[in-house]
Design a protein that fits this description.
Number of strands: 36
CATH architecture of the largest domain: Sandwich
Oligomer: single chain
Helix content: 25-40%
CATH topology of the largest domain: Immunoglobulin-like
CATH superfamily of the largest domain: Immunoglobulins
Low-confidence stretches: 1-27, 439-540
Strand content: 25-35%
CATH class of the largest domain: Mainly Beta
Number of helices: 9
Bound molecules: 2-acetamido-2-deoxy-beta-D-glucopyranose
Structural class: alpha+beta
């Protein structure tokens, strides 16, 4: 009875222990049990994971071995692998369970390959005293991913960067942002997002994020801020004055993203494409405005530059104002013209075969001219670039009008005297002939008469050849064809043309002879006779 009572009292204690065991929550299967703080742990790559763990085993057992394993499949030795003996883990795993029933484990520098389920294993000295804490703890190792709302962002627009991982990073996590490995401490962040409002071109770069307290940065995200070309800047090389023949480089620079395409225009005409337009051996006609067009997909802009090509004087021409024949005592002005850039600053006048210059200025005047001024003159035009001379022009000084008149008067007087002498000679000869030969005189008279009779028209013509009326009559009476008449007309015309006021009388005589020769080309003898008759007629 007493013993039974004793047993009953012991049994009364049992519910207390049970309650205690119930409070333990974990599996109390025969007193065996492993309690993990959580069934799954998500961790960032590179971080350190601590798995909190407690365990229970039935009383009467003595712990032989405790370890962590990563599989619930038995190995050939009929047990699970001990991670502390696995080279993959041995350096990184640490059993922290210093206290009794504490099986906390630490794994450092976790890797993607550490993503497994982990179990705590305990064995006691009793043959069936073995336990594995399954289900275990699932480790989920993850990277940080950076996502953006767009890779190509137009300047002025906004872009949102989001730092993501497969683990649900809590609101308590603080995110750190990097641009090209420099932290952006001044940027405002909201949760795991970085919002770049109204991006500038300087915002272009590689972005990444990190979670404070973790030795892990996200993947990089390249943000490319694109923008239309800036107004191009043109540089001219060499700078400064451009001379004809120089080689000139025009370079157009314009900031743009994507890089701008450059083309060159002169006026409206496209002359080149590419950043540098090379004009080798520039000419004066290259002067003018050049435009550079900078274009990309977002827009275009122009800039212009004006080239001013300077060159030495060209087409230098000396000319005489008025005629080149100048009377003594007159004045004459020579002028020099040329093309040049910059304009000619110095005109110099020279006379051929005179070493020193005779004058300067664009015009050169000689007053009260005399024959010593006759000669060839040229000018030389000079600007900053060079000089060029003209071909020479001739200045011919004629004798004065007075001298000319005097000469003509003297000449006429001399001619008059000669004619008088001839007349006297003929009269004297006639008188001599009349006295000595009467018969011959008849014959001569006939000849004279014949000449007179048959060629009377011609005799008249000789006079009339100077006057238009008589000339016409001659043409009709002789019955000449218009073709043969033409030379006469030319002859007549030339007679009139050559005649000058002073020389009229002497030229008349010459022309009369000319006319006669033309009228009678058929008979040379007769023309001789006619000549004689002509002398008579002209004397008459
Ligand atoms: C593990 O235990 C320690 C204290 O023992 C505690 O600070 C830590 O938060 C626990 N970890 C987890 C994941 O529960
Ligand atoms: C098992 O885990 C629960 C909750 O985490 C805890 O309250 C309890 O004390 C643990 N039991 C043991 C024996 O560690
Ligand atoms: C890690 O967690 C994600 C979501 O929380 C899940 O989809 C994935 O399967 C997990 N990986 C492992 C190895 O448990
Ligand atoms: C951004 O990263 C890419 C490769 O990830 C690299 O080629 C590039 O040079 C980086 N740019 C800058 C500005 O760091
Ligand atoms: C972070 O990781 C790198 C290598 O991945 C290591 O060299 C460095 O010591 C780590 N820093 C910390 C604070 O853990
Ligand atoms: C112009 O450009 C060409 C090619 O780039 C170069 O060889 C030359 O020296 C440049 N000339 C000047 C005047 O800058
Ligand atoms: C060109 O340059 C010259 C000086 O070298 C100057 O006299 C001239 O006015 C310029 N012409 C233009 C069109 O700018
Ligand atoms: C004009 O040229 C002449 C000769 O070349 C020179 O002697 C004179 O000094 C120049 N005058 C000026 C103003 O350049
Ligand atoms: C200049 O002089 C040379 C000989 O010294 C001569 O042959 C030439 O005809 C002269 N020219 C003029 C235009 O006088
Ligand atoms: C011509 O005129 C110049 C002055 O213009 C004078 O020196 C020279 O003696 C004159 N010559 C003659 C032949 O009159």
């Amino acid at each position: 009875m007493l013993e039974f009572r004793h047993i009953r009292s012991r049994m009364a204690l049992l519910p207390l222990i049970f309650l205690l065991m119930i409070q333990g929550v974990y599996s109390a299967d025969d007193g065996w049990g492993v309690n993990y703080s959580s069934s799954s742990i998500c961790a960032l790559k590179g971080s350190t994971v601590i798995i909190n763990c407690t365990y229970e085993y039935p009383t009467g057992h003595q712990i032989m071995k405790v370890f962590w394993t990563n599989t619930d499949v038995r190995q050939p030795n009929n047990d699970f692998p001990d991670l502390s003996e696995d080279s993959e883990y041995s350096q990184r795993i640490q059993y922290l369970g210093v206290k009794h029933h504490d099986c906390t484990m630490r794994l450092t520098d976790v890797r993607q390959t550490d993503s497994h389920e982990y179990y705590f294993r305990l064995t006691t000295y009793k043959p069936d005293g073995k336990w594995i804490g399954a289900p275990g703890v699932t480790l989920n190792i993850t990277d940080l991913q950076l996502e953006s709302s767009g890779e190509r962002v137009i300047e002025g627009h906004s872009v949102t960067l989001t730092c993501k991982s497969r683990c649900s990073l809590t609101d308590r996590s603080t995110f750190i942002w990097f641009k090209n490995t420099q932290s952006l401490s001044e940027r405002t962040d909201r949760n795991n997002q970085l919002i770049l409002q109204s991006v500038r071109r300087e915002d272009t770069g590689n972005y990444s994020c990190a979670v404070q307290g973790h030795n892990l940065t996200s993947t990089h995200q390249y943000i490319n801020v694109i923008y239309a070309p800036d107004k191009p800047v043109i540089s001219v090389n060499p700078s400064g004055e451009i001379k004809e023949g120089d080689s000139v480089n025009l370079t157009c620079s314009s900031d743009a993203n994507p890089p701008a395409e450059i083309s060159w225009f002169k006026g409206e005409t496209s002359v080149a494409s590419g950043q540098t337009y090379i004009i080798s051996k520039i000419r004066s006609d290259h002067s003018g405005e050049y435009k550079c067009k900078s274009i990309n997909e977002l827009g275009h802009k122009y800039s212009a530059v004006t080239l001013n090509v300077s060159y030495p004087p060209k087409k230098v021409t000396a000319s005489i104002i008025g005629s080149g024949e100048i009377m003594e005592g007159d004045s004459v002005t020579l002028t020099c013209s040329s093309e040049s850039n910059p304009p000619v600053h110095n005109y110099t006048w020279f006379k051929v075969n005179k070493t020193s210059s005779v004058g300067s200025g664009q015009t050169y005047s000689i007053t009260n001219i005399n024959s010593s001024h006759s000669g060839w003159f040229y000018c030389e035009a000079q600007n900053e670039v060079g000089s060029q001379r003209s071909v020479a022009v001739s200045v011919t000084v004629l004798h004065s009008y007075y001298n000319l008149l005097l000469g003509i008067t003297l000449g006429c007087g001399a001619l008059f005297i000669v004619i008088i002498i001839i007349i006297l000679f003929i009269i004297r000869r006639k008188q001599k002939d009349a006295k000595t030969e009467d018969t011959v005189g008849n014959q001569q008279g006939d000849l004279y008469c014949n000449v007179h009779a048959s060629e009377s028209a011609h005799c008249e013509d000789h006079y009339s050849s100077v006057t238009p009326k008589g000339h016409r009559t001659d043409q009709t009476s002789a019955g000449k064809t218009p073709e043969s008449g033409d030379p006469e007309e030319i002859q007549y015309a030339s007679v009139h043309h050559h005649a000058t006021k002073e020389m009229k009388s002497s030229e008349e005589i010459d022309n009369t002879y000319d006319n006669i020769r033309n009228y009678k080309p058929d008979a040379a003898v007769r023309s001789n006779v006619e000549e004689t008759s002509v002398i008579y007629s002209s004397v008459k």
